Amino acid sequence: MRLDIWHFFGLAAQGVFGSRFLVQWLASEIQGKTVFPLYFWQASLLGAIGLLIYAVHIKDPVFIIGQSFGIVIYSRNLILRQRSARA
What we know:
The protein is an all-alpha fold. It has three helices and no strands.
């Protein structure tokens, strides 16, 4: 298998997406309860967008649908968090 720029892009997007779990786990351990820091939602959205771009490039409809739904959810959570911070 030959790695090209698209493979590196997809791996980077997966790395951002996966990093959210580590950050969420560490933040929860520090606070002693389950928490979702802002980075969790930001990395979720950024990683999902990157993975969607990669999925479109490789023309994988299952991957495209899966990432599309996630983007809606992550965006909504960021909007709700922003509204809550304003109040």
